[in-house]
Design a protein that fits this description.
1259 residues, alpha+beta, ABC transporter ATPase like fold, six-stranded mixed sheet, 46 helices
């Protein structure tokens, strides 16, 4: 900590030998490091400083995380911190003890809260997590524990109709806790959910109703369904490897003899990290040791946090922080420690098994030594797909191209240049035994062993992959495609490649995660091989197939959390099986006995019966005016809730059932996801069962944003953006030519496609930089060995030529080679092309002048020129383009929006119709409103009359009688100068003047009446940049399609002609677009265009768009709640709506509709009639049942109207139409077709028509 203010003597010595003294306080090491923490500006510096940092308990709150005032608040003499430190079991007991000690008022307030807390604690206990404390941090949980916490929240939600998918939930779970987990999953199934589990655990498979067995082998040998059926049926299937293990025909044998422990031990003294109780643990050297125990018993704390970290620090000189312990003895028996987990061997497709075990280095060395490589001068790097030279530059050595699909999973497509080989053509010419380097990467291990059997170094490395059971994988198989178990075995193969010292400690934490019985057998074979070489293997495991194979077992427990951290038993598996208080021993005893006696647990021939719920049951609903009602609503049916207005229909459907369904669904999500979603308050209801995730479809505007269109609201336009970005053909927006990027190999292929024998010049075109002269380029070319140039079609000698005038435009290039198209000349052509493209002055272009196969001296000789570019550019116009992405077609993104209107399609400018509203008037008497009357005292009168005199404009003539040229001069001005004495002026026009004045905020109020939205003059209403509109599919731009009616767009995508590659890339997107278009047509919206502004949609159109979206989702098991969907719908459209609702129901959903419409009520499967009155006089269910049952009961007002006993009678007398009319002339707002409408005054007039026909636009 330094010397404080005390100064001490420092001597500074320079590198020349000089020195001088100075005095200053010594800062100390810790203050110096803290200073460096503040100044650290790089990851390297942070990493170095972190070696001296440690996490300690906060001195202020003592680890409670809260302020002292918060900790001082207690319930039943316990603070919230005290409760969170309890285990789940202790917390349950505490919550049970709280209510009796509370006052009546406190119980009223806390009753629901305590019920909710106890329920959630109970769910955690049921999935075997009762040993955890509530303050346990999430990063310290195992994967299995975290998964079971999420499972507990799902069980707590009580939702039905949900599909749950679990990926190996038994990871980290002891067999004792397995039963709890399986009971919880069975409960999820029994209440009406579907549970799909990816699992290898035998108990889970035996408990399943159905097994789908994949195979028959791993990797490329798999991908097929081998068997489907009950566990018994699968066990009897001869083709199923899983079935053979379930039936006992195959099994992992117990070793006949276990290795003795010997006299060498590794001893951990005083282990007290996390929940370890200051224990001493002895591990025999040179054996296969298993660490077992229930979840949370301290296994990982002992082995991973203490042993591995300490040995990594002491043996491997790694920076590590071991958990709390006194010391470790017996380290001298080891020389290194290796942790082998299931993490991927690489994160990118560039990593593969061959590169990971380093055998690919040897293969590349071999190829570099081949005669063909020696002749061509190829080094080892030429055969690497990670560096330039030998790799294909189109895909940069990946062999595949990743196409980002925005909303859908990214698509990997084979590179069209190298056809997936990763290398360019020149590299592939080098072969060993007839196989190129690409062919080698495509070999499986077995094939490669045979191919390289005469190269011992390579064959030996490949043999290790064979030994770990990976002879089926390809050498170049991308690392991300390997399973966790395969990655683990590749790591083991790498270890087998190394020369064994017999003093290595291997640590594996649950290595059988994700492994089948057969894979487990292979893993055990490899581990035993490592131990046979004298090494020590420690495995943390729950899998009894592994534990029974161990030489030595250390069982920890007896429970998890605070009740764990002890050694329960040690010894061989047989010795552990005799320890009665060991949970592991109890299971192990059955396993060993069954194996000894050849017994196999029986399998039921029938699946367990399911009892799914058939009704949505509501009990004690009291929301708003509901009178504590109880009701059962059938699931997977369409139910209509009807009754007089205010009788409580929406209170039950939306405010109770939907609110609770939405609340439960949101609560079932992670806390991270919940922060982005609004959560509805808990309704006043005692209980709801059979509740599915709920979606409400209400009549509300589709959007209030002027940027929203039918295309964006339905997301069809979003998918179209992806489609055009990925398979659209870009064109130059100026000349219309197709543009694309080309690699050097593609350019060579294009050149080689010309007739054999064609002569040509390979030319590097010269593009001068600012201040650069042609002479400079010519001198540089001469220095590099090029003697000829090309100027405006003529060949010149670079040594002797006339000076080129830089001020005039010239086409100039350097001739790199004169060639004849011939397959034998391909390498020469490729070299010339690559040299041209890489020249500083060529701007990544190459020009080829083709000569006909005639005598060069012939006068009739004609040439033609082709320019190729590596860049995305139009070589004719000299315009470069940015990469085409989905954002390029978004009018909400700067990459795609028109710069003038900012993606709105309209601009706010002076509107000629507002400037001259009455065209029958003359300019003199005020036709141009901003000018006013041209009186002598008007300051602009003199200038307007001078301009009119100059252009011979009659100011007394009606404005509409003026010629279009004269009207344009008044509105938009002219370039003519008009003189007044010694001064002159140009008239900008009224439109230009108003827009100029509007830019000054001071006059905006005066100008606003003459401003309006007009079509953007740049994009003409398309909203997009010209470059985006120039991208086409089958000669149609994305704008063309959005302006078509949806019916026509659907026809276009149904008949569109695409190449195989375009289908491979865009097939899924195209399918999604066609599906969504079809659903819009099905609900009667085929007349809309995708470019239609969403704000102009009627309520009925907006609701049907949302209905179409739900139909397009294809979800099942959802509760849909609709509030009067027939509002604003014509009777014709009503039938379409009812058809859509029935389609939703038929998908397997429950549809609940609040409605008064007769057709909707009669079309329902079930109905609830509310009443008898509104408000406080309502809130009761008067009748329920099928529509016919309710009609026949005749107990309600609704039933009387449905049966015809009551009806609304038509008027006997209609008022006569008088002579007073309201006339609307030339109505053309939205879709109105310039119509004239007369409405009689003094009577009751009705405006009717189908949805979207223009009623609201008119009125």
């Amino acid at each position: 900590y330094g010397t404080g203010k005390e100064k001490i003597k420092f001597t500074y010595r320079s590198h020349t030998g000089g020195s001088h003294n100075y005095y200053m306080p010594y800062r100390g090491l810790i203050p110096d490091i803290e200073r460096r923490i503040q100044r650290a500006d790089s990851e390297l510096a942070d990493e170095w400083i972190s070696r001296f940092l440690n996490t300690t308990t906060c001195q202020e709150c003592q680890g409670s995380r809260l302020k002292p005032e918060s900790v001082a608040v207690t319930v039943n003499e316990k603070s919230i911190v005290d409760i969170t430190k309890m285990s789940i079991n202790e917390a349950i007991d505490f919550m049970d003890s709280v209510p009796p000690k509370l006052t009546e008022t406190q119980n009223l307030i806390a009753g629901d809260l305590i019920k909710e807390i106890k329920g959630r604690l109970g769910f955690l206990k049921n999935v075997g997590l009762d040993y955890l404390s509530l303050d346990r941090t999430m990063p310290t949980l195992s994967g299995g524990e975290a998964q079971r916490i999420r499972l507990a929240s799902q069980i707590g939600s009580g939702l039905v109709g949900v599909l749950y998918i679990l990926d190996e939930p038994t990871i980290g779970l002891h067999h004792r806790d397995n039963v709890r987990l399986l009971n919880a999953l069975t409960k999820l199934k029994d209440i009406g959910n579907t549970v799909i589990i990816v699992e290898h655990d035998e108990d889970t498979m035996r408990s399943a109703d159905l097994i789908v067995d994949f195979g028959p082998g791993p990797g490329i040998r798999g991908g097929e369904i081998v068997a489907v059926g009950s566990p018994y049926e699968v066990s009897q299937n001869e083709n199923s490897l899983t079935g053979k293990y379930l039936s006992g025909k195959l099994k992992i044998p117990i070793p006949e003899k276990r290795r003795p422990t010997g006299d060498k031990w590794l001893e951990i003294i005083g282990a007290r990290h996390n929940n370890l109780k200051n224990i001493n643990v002895r591990i025999p050297i040179g054996t296969f040791t298993c660490i077992t125990g229930v979840s949370g018993s301290g296994k990982s704390s002992l082995i991973n946090d203490i042993l591995h970290q300490a040995l990594a620090r002491d043996l491997m000189r790694a920076y590590a922080k071991p958990g709390e312990h006194d010391r470790i003895e017996g380290i001298e028996y080891l020389d290194k420690v290796i942790d082998i987990d299931q993490s991927p061997i690489g994160r990118t497709p560039r990593s593969n098994p061959a590169t990971y075990i380093k055998v690919f280095d040897n293969i590349r060395d071999l190829f570099a030594q081949l005669p063909e490589s020696q002749v061509r001068g190829y080094k080892v790097g030429r055969f690497s797909f990670n560096v330039k030279g030998g790799r294909c530059e189109a895909c940069q050595g990946n062999g595949l191209k990743e196409i980002e699909m925005h909303f859908l999973p990214n698509v990997w497509v084979k590179c069209e240049v190298c056809e997936g080989s990763r290398y360019n053509d020149e590299t592939l010419l080098v072969k060993y035994k007839g196989k190129s380097i690409a062919d080698v990467l495509d070999m499986d291990v077995q094939e490669a062993i045979e191919h390289f059997k005469n190269v011992p170094k390579i064959a030996k490395a490949l043999k290790t992959l064979h030994d770990v059971g990976l002879d089926y994988i390809k050498l170049g198989q991308p690392a991300p495609t390997l399973s966790g178990g395969e990655a683990q075995r590749v790591k083991l193969a790498k270890e087998l490649c190394k020369k064994s010292t017999g003093k290595t400690l291997y640590i594996l934490d649950e290595p059988t995660t994700g492994m089948h019985f057969a894979d487990t057998q292979k893993l055990l074979d490899v581990l035993n091989r490592l131990v046979d070489a004298g090494n020590t293997v420690i495995v943390i495991e729950h899998n009894m197939e592994v534990i029974k194979m161990a030489d030595y077992v250390i069982d920890m427990g007896p429970e998890g959390g605070e009740n764990g951290g002890y050694i329960v038993a040690t010894g061989t598996p047989e010795e552990i099986a005799e320890v009665e208080n060991s949970y592991t021993g109890q299971v192990l005893k059955d396993v060993l006995n069954n194996h000894k006696e050849g017994l196999v647990p029986s399998l039921s021939k029938k699946a367990s019966p399911a009892h799914p719920l058939t009704n949505l049951s509501v009990r004690g609903a009291r929301e708003h005016n509901l009178k504590n009602i109880d009701v059962d609503i059938p699931l997977n049916k369409m139910t209509v809730l009807t009754g007089v207005s205010g009788s409580g229909k929406s209170s039950l459907a939306l405010d109770t059932i939907y609110a609770e369904g939405q609340r439960r669904y949101v609560e079932s999500l992670s806390s991270y996801a919940r922060q982005f979603l609004g959560q509805m308050p808990k309704p006043h209801v005692d209980y709801i069962s059979g509740l599915a995730p709920a979606i409400a479809i209400e009549q509300k505007p589709a959007s209030i944003s002027p940027r929203s269109t039918v295309g964006t609201v339905t997301e069809i336009y979003d998918y179209m953006r992806v489609l055009f970005a990925r398979i659209g053909i870009p064109h130059c927006h100026k000349c219309g030519r197709e543009i694309s990027t080309q690699t050097s190999q593609q350019i060579v292929d294009r050149i080689m496609s010309y007739p054999e024998g064609t002569r040509a010049y390979i030319i590097a075109p010269v593009k001068l930089k600012k201040g650069e002269e042609y002479e400079t380029i010519f001198k540089l070319a001469l220095k590099n060995g090029y003697a000829r140039g090309w100027v405006d079609g003529h060949i010149i000698d670079l040594m002797e030529h006339e000076e080129i005038d830089r001020r005039r435009r010239h086409d100039v290039g350097i001739i790199y080679d004169r060639i004849v198209i011939d397959p034998e000349n391909r390498s020469r052509i490729a070299e010339a092309v690559e040299s041209s493209l890489s020249a500083d002055y060529s701007d990544h272009r190459v020009m080829v002048e083709f000569l006909p196969d005639t005598d060069e001296s012939s006068d009739e000789q004609k040439t033609f020129i082709r320019i190729f570019s590596e860049e995305f550019a139009c070589v004719e116009c000299g315009i470069s383009f940015n990469e085409i992405t989905p954002q390029s077609f978004s009018f909400n993104n700067p990459d795609g929006m028109c710069p003038r209107c900012k993606g709105l399609g309209k601009v706010f400018t002076a509107d000629p119709n507002l400037i001259v509203p009455d065209k029958k008037r003359s300019i003199n008497i005020g036709a141009v409103v901003p000018m006013g009357l041209l009186l002598p005292n008007n300051p602009i009168t003199k200038y307007i009359r001078l301009d009119a005199e100059h252009h011979k404009i009659d100011l007394n003539a009606p404005f509409d009688k003026l010629s279009s040229e004269h009207q344009n001069i008044i509105l938009y001005g002219s370039d003519d100068e008009i003189r007044i004495g010694n001064l002159s002026f140009r008239f900008k026009g009224v439109v230009g003047s108003i827009e100029w004045v509007y830019e000054h905020e001071r006059y905006r109020r005066e100008c606003s009446p003459f401003m309006g939205d007009t079509v953007c003059p740049i994009c003409h209403g398309s909203r997009l940049k010209p470059e985006s509109v120039a991208v086409t599919i089958n000669d149609r731009s994305i704008v063309d399609l959005t302006l078509m009616p949806i019916n026509q767009v659907y026809d276009f995508f149904n008949t569109v002609q695409l190449t195989e590659r375009q289908i491979e890339i865009g097939g899924e997107v195209l399918k999604e677009i066609k599906g969504r278009l079809q659903f819009l047509i099905d609900v009667g919206l085929g007349y809309l265009t995708l470019a239609r502004n969403a704000t102009t949609l009627s309520g009925g159109e907006a609701e049907r768009i949302r209905l179409a979206s739900q139909l397009g989702c294809g979800l099942a098991g959802v509760l849909y709640v609709l509030d009067e969907p027939s509002i604003g719908l014509h009777q014709r459209d009503n039938q379409r709506l009812l058809k859509a609702l029935k389609n939703l129901r038929d998908l397997g959903n429950t549809v609940m509709v609040v409605e008064h419409d007769r057709d909707a009520i009669l079309a329902s499967d079930y109905m609830l009639d509310f009443g008898p009155g509104a408000g406080v006089n309502g809130g009761q269910i008067l009748a329920n049942g099928t529509p016919m049952e309710v009609i026949n009961s005749n107990n309600s007002l609704t039933a009387q109207y449905l049966s015809g006993k009551k009806k609304i009678k038509p008027s006997r007398f209609r008022r006569e139409i008088g002579d007073k009319w309201l006339e609307i002339k030339g109505a053309r707002h939205n879709n109105l077709k310039n119509i004239d409408v007369n409405i009689p005054l003094g009577i009751f007039t009705c405006i009717t028509g189908v949805s979207g026909s223009g009623k609201s636009s008119l009125i």
